[in-house]
Write a structure and sequence with these properties.
Blueprint lengths: L44 E7 L8 E4 L5 E7 L6 E5 L5 E6 L5 E4 L3 E5 H4 L9 E5 L2 E8 L2 E6 L6 E9 L2 E7 H5 L3 H12 L6
Antiparallel strand pairs: 1-2, 1-12, 2-3, 3-4, 4-5, 5-6, 6-7, 8-9, 9-10, 10-11, 11-12
Length: 200
């Protein structure tokens, strides 16, 4: 029988992909209708930075797009043993009590609970799970960063990434994370994972 794919240079072997260079950049459909992966998918992320350490992240500011201040983080002020994240209206959004383990509460999102319940470490100590608004996420290291993935069926979807910088901590989140109201959750988790204190 005639095989139309056998004509010309159409690959027909089971290992057809090996005939193409491994590092080629995917090209868009000539009709523009089909999605295709890009090399820099993090361009879809929105950046926030923990800055103005005084002297550490325990007393800092979270700045977002257009250098706007989103949160101010204060530890031991006004009450010793607590860290409070205040929003632009100076309203408390996140409260952490430094017990062993720490206890936290995130306004309208996470009820008061131990950090070991909210960010439990896996048995093999390779990742942490996090539940917010009925969805379970996974924080796992990826090179120099910690990445947040939505768990579920199919390929894991990266939702956020935390990277240390010189004198700052960078938090990148997707627009979807902001849309569903989880920015404060990601900020709180990034803080706990980067604060240098024991959270287990």
């Amino acid at each position: 029988m005639f095989n139309p794919y056998g004509m010309g240079d159409w690959p027909t072997t089971p290992h057809a992909n090996t005939t193409f260079p491994a590092n080629t950049t995917p090209q868009p459909s000539i009709f523009g209708a089909l999605p295709y992966p890009t090399q820099n998918s993090l361009s879809m992320f929105i950046s926030f930075r923990f800055t103005s350490f005084s002297p550490t992240i325990l007393n800092s500011t979270v700045v977002g797009p257009q250098a706007r201040t989103y949160f101010r983080i204060s530890t031991d002020v006004p009450k010793p043993g607590f860290t409070v994240f205040s929003d632009a209206k100076n309203e408390p959004v996140v409260i952490i009590e430094w017990l062993t383990p720490p206890v936290l509460e995130i306004r309208d999102t996470v009820s008061k609970q131990k950090s070991t319940q909210w960010l439990p470490l896996s048995a093999e100590k390779r990742y942490r799970t996090m539940t917010a608004k009925g969805t379970t996420y996974v924080w796992a290291p990826d090179g120099e960063s910690l990445c947040l993935y939505a768990s579920g069926l199919g390929a894991p979807q990266i939702c956020a990434r935390v990277t240390r910088e010189d004198g700052a901590v960078l938090l990148e989140v997707t627009a979807e994370i902001i849309r569903i109201g989880l920015l404060d959750v990601c900020v709180a988790a990034a803080f706990l994972l980067q604060c240098g204190r024991t959270i287990d």
